[in-house]
Amino acid sequence: MLIGDVARRSGVSARMLRHYESLGLVRPTGRSEAGYREYSSEDIRRIFHIESLRSLGLSLREVGRALDDPGFTPSELVGDLIRQTRERIAAETELLTRLSRIGAAAPADWEDVLRIVALLQALGSDSAGKRQRAALSSAEEAPVPVEALVEAALSEADPNVAGALQWALARSGGGAVALLAEGLGSPAAEVRRRAVQSIAEIPDGEATAVLREALTSSDVVVRRCAALALGARGVADAVPALIDMIVEGTNDVDAADALSALASDPTLADQIATGLAGRLAHGTDDSSVRLRLAQALADIPGPTTSRALADLSHDEDRAVALTARYIRTLRDGR
After folding, report:
1. pLDDT of 119-160, one tens digit each?
2. The HTH merR-type domain covers which part of the protein (predicted)?
3. DSSP label at residue 226
4. d(CA 46, CA 281)
5. If residue 181 lies in a helix (H) or strand (E), which one and from where to where?
């Protein structure tokens, strides 16, 4: 079969067939009387083998080795191809993500594009200072896509940079809460913690709704952070979790402050006092728990609190009793 016929049937151009011949990959078996290349059925079969191996990403050199080296073992080469392909996919995915984020920022001109690229690169810098400056300048220099800010916030370990990213997210203009809420379902505890802390800094109704849902999280750190944030927003749903924090002695001072702020609402004050007194009524052998509950009652108005403090003023633990008496003295002097 002449080279033109082979090209038509195989889909490999005559020029490429000549290139294969120059590399020694496939040589036509003979020549016609007019001197034209003639390919046998075996030659054509080899051409198809070459094309099949090229479709896997092998170079022409690797193709030649695969076809001609009796000691060639494909498993190692295939393993390398898998690794290279994964690396290429990762690089292309990263590029696609970057391009999508630049597009989402709707740059007006190439200077905008360059500023956005510079900020995105700074957010991924090894330098905490550069990451922090990028977060703080994101609202002024160029609008960094919220997806990039969320990704950075969920992976940021430096507390100063994390604070700057949370500030930027709170001013990002929407879309951040839904993306951060996905982080609450992460298998990584650190990611869940960063997600709830970032949501807590966003003062809108959507964030409050997500924080309410977070009160039922199986992650105790998420529950506590959500409770403190909701307490500061005056949400009564946080009361049981805040009381739990006082009993457990975890962020108990912050929890007591949140309950005190909530108790400024007369409709919540008795609910809080009843909750705290209820923990005392059920009894606890741990005097440190009773002491924390007494201290938490200090700023909760109402008769329920007064009765609880009166009982605690006779507590068997001297520190608890003295604390309760002192609080009663302060309350009586108001």
Report:
1. 888 888 999 999 998 888 876 655 678 888 999 999 999 999
2. 1-69
3. H
4. 88
5. helix 176-183
